[in-house]
Structure prediction request, 134 residues.
Amino acid sequence: MIRRWLFALCLVSLCLFAAPLTASAFNPFGGVTCPAGHTGTGTNPNQSAVCNGETSQDPISGNNGILLNVADIVAFAAGAAAIILIIVAGIRYITSGGNAEKIASAKNTIIGAMVGIVVIVLARSLILYVVNKL
Prediction:
């Protein structure tokens, strides 16, 4: 019973955290060609921020800023490490052979990895909240 539950938990965790995030295919600057060869949006391409070389986004905390990119990389790496820990602990649990110490160690590893995943999700949510408020 516990092995089935553990297997299902590992499978769901793997599906949620190991699947890569998809990128949007929307191009906000497409459609209009500026005189200087840039692409712009709007009815008058000469007055767009792209044609004038100006942007309103902060390169550090903007939508594709350094802060969010670093947070994504760290969250993905930590999530992948937590998933690997859950899988290894599941294998250790299955191969424990009834040894109480090995079972307790595997369970503690699984609990620690699950707590780590919760911390990762909360930290990522907090970073997004703070960056959106800037």
Observations:
- The mean pLDDT is 74.
- The radius of gyration is 23 Å.
- The chain has three helices and two strands.
- The first strand starts at residue 32 and ends at 33.
